[in-house]
UniProtKB/TrEMBL annotation, chains A, B:
One of the GO biological process terms: thiamine biosynthetic process
Domain PurM-like N-terminal: residue ranges: 25-134
Organism: Paralysiella testudinis
Residues binding Mg(2+) 1: T43, D44, D119
Gene name in the database record: thiL
Keywords: ATP-binding, Kinase, Magnesium, Metal-binding, Nucleotide-binding, Thiamine biosynthesis, Transferase
Taxonomic placement: Bacteria, Pseudomonadati, Pseudomonadota, Betaproteobacteria, Neisseriales
Binding site for Mg(2+) 3: D27, D72, D208
Superkingdom per UniProt: Bacteria
Pathways involved: Cofactor biosynthesis; thiamine diphosphate biosynthesis; thiamine diphosphate from thiamine phosphate: step 1/1
Binding site for Mg(2+) 5: D211
Keyword presence, Transferase: yes
Main function: Catalyzes the ATP-dependent phosphorylation of thiamine-monophosphate (TMP) to form thiamine-pyrophosphate (TPP), the active form of vitamin B1.
Domain PurM-like C-terminal positions: 147-296
UniProt name for this protein: Thiamine-monophosphate kinase
């Protein structure tokens, strides 16, 4: 099987998407703007050995590479629309490709995303997806809108993916069922797309947690010119982690673990009912974890006694 | 230097682009549609050791990864607007990064392209650019419009990049000045952006030649349901290659070499004056190399006597 057979057999599927005038198969796709909407556009690259284990199941890799991109759309409050996939593959193995593509198109269809283009080449596993979505004009959720006194909110649970990674690296020993749940969070993150859209007009700033709560929150603080106090006892996680791990193991997982793909956002206290409604509408648990302060770029993570915690590692830096 | 310092110091430059509402630094960029225009969107990934030598100069790599993407915009007749860069780098070397970024932003500025986002990670050199551009609504140049009787045209010269690659792989020995010119074509391809836009409403089908004239022309034949006769004596190349190489060496370079990034397009004979005007307006030499025939997907490459040539290798296939 050659490159062009692969494209025709596996990638040129019938897909919907009223805005897609021309999909896979030309020099570029053609997408027609939708009236009154802005485009949000983002890209994420995943490499074997860095973002996933090289022997991970094809379906899990495909899910994750699209999910982390969908998570960026969620963080903008955008409706995902289309995606392009670049893939370097060591060979074209039909079993592997079927599994990869079925998983990719399944998650894409669940979010109304049309695969409109891409590039394939021979090489060690590298996957890059660029994704585009829409928000009502001028309403995209940015990192720069947090105001002093705003509540800080976090969706779902954090620390699970990091716990699974630590176990797979031999640095942690969780009970089997706990590891299984954490590993599922690592392999199959759920992008909070519905929640993001429900937060339009409600959240003052938002991002998705990919590098760890502490480091990602710092991005909001920098962009908004504010500070934050975070109550670490309110950080949502698996009960088995919260109660089964010593604090010195638990807190780095929760604050600096990364790979969570939950939404971290701020909203005025007057919006608490609206935030709760957004959580219910999207079927997502939401935790109020802290408050925006006026101390520019100063993040205090407080323990049960209200004392600041010193974190050795702030979060994931690809070149740190 | 960490990942975020790199982004701030090297990538968050002041750029123009009226349609870019929000650039680098959030979860996604925000781009506002322009009235009456369609978006053309394309992506290309380049890997060390496959698309470029790992020790190539940073400025040359940066030029090429953007140029090949600009070439896809040219092939659609699109005005390039924005790009996203994903890069895997073994380390953050300030000298290397300065050179890479200066070259990238220089070519981007020359074409009015704003870098709106990207992703960086540690790994062997991999670069992926996704590019977006605009065409007047419904006018993008596709591969599917070639009609029986249309002329087949080729811009610039082909075979130079392939000749340089063959020499660098030790399979060819060109005079030094000839190699230097060919190597420049390999390292610094010139995307035919102005020509592409000048061909809107003139060309019936178009693409850019990246995998070799013969293979890329087959894409037009397949998409348009037609055939083609190509007069190989009319294939434009460097005189020193045409006259210095035996035909058995020359023709594979011209027909199946790849990495040319010239525009291959079809147009009705009634459009010859308009085609010539498009060449003059864009400062590009154009050669009429053949005719579209009604034999579906049958490509005849004819020698000086009008006899069909048999090519062993049709062109570049990443998994062939």
């Amino acid at each position: 099987m050659g490159e062009f057979d692969f494209i025709r057999q596996y990638l040129q599927r019938q897909q919907s998407g009223a805005e897609v005038v021309l999909g896979i198969g030309d020099d570029a796709a053609i997408v027609r703007p939708l009236p009154g909407l802005d485009w949000c556009i983002s890209t994420d690259m995943l490499l074997a050995g860095r973002h996933f284990f090289a022997d991970e199941a094809a379906a899990d890799i495909a899910h994750k590479v699209l999910a982390v991109n969908l998570s960026d759309m969620a963080a903008m409050g955008a409706q995902p629309r289309w995606a392009l996939l670049s893939a370097a593959l060591p060979q074209l193995n039909p079993v592997w490709l079927s599994s990869f593509c079925d998983s990719l198109f399944s998650l894409a269809a669940a979010h109304g995303v049309t695969l409109i283009g891409g590039d394939t080449t021979r090489g060690d596993y590298v996957f890059n997806i660029t994704i585009g979505g829409t928000v009502p004009q001028g309403q995209g959720l940015r990192r720069s809108g947090a105001q002093v006194g705003d509540d800080i909110w976090l969706s779902g649970r954090v620390g699970l993916a990091a716990a699974a990674l630590q176990q797979r690296l031999g640095r942690l020993r969780l009970p089997e069922t706990v590891f299984a749940e954490c590993n599922q969070a690592l392999l199959r993150p759920t992008p909070q797309v519905a929640l993001g859209q429900a937060l339009l007009g409600v959240a003052s700033a938002a991002l998705d947690v990919s590098d760890g709560v502490a480091q990602d929150l710092q991005h909001i603080l920098r962009a908004s010119g504010v500070g934050a106090d975070v109550d670490t006892t309110q950080l949502p996680t698996l009960a088995a982690l919260r109660h089964g791990l010593p604090e010195s193991t638990l807190l780095p997982l929760l604050l600096a673990g990364g790979d969570d793909y939950e939404l971290l956002f701020t909203a005025a206290p007057a919006q608490r009912a609206a935030v709760a409604a957004a959580g219910i509408a999207s079927g997502t648990a939401l935790s109020r974890i802290g408050t925006i302060t006026e101390q520019r770029q100063v993040l205090h993570c407080l323990d049960a006694d209200g004392h600041p915690i010193k974190l050795d590692q702030q979060g994931y830096d690809h070149f740190g």
